[in-house]
Amino acid sequence: MTIYSLYIYDRHCACVYYQDWHRTKQPKRAGEGGILNAVSQAVSPLAPDSVAPAPSSFTSPRNTLSSTTGLVVAVGEDPPVQNPLEHARSNTLPFDEEAKLVYGVIISLRNMVKKLSGRDEQFTSYRTSTYRLHLYETVSGYKFVMLSDAATDGLRFVLRQIYNGPFLDFVVRNPLVPMDSRDQGIDNDYFRASIDRLIRGLSVFN
Question: What is the overall mean pLDDT for the chain?
Answer without folding.
Answer: 83
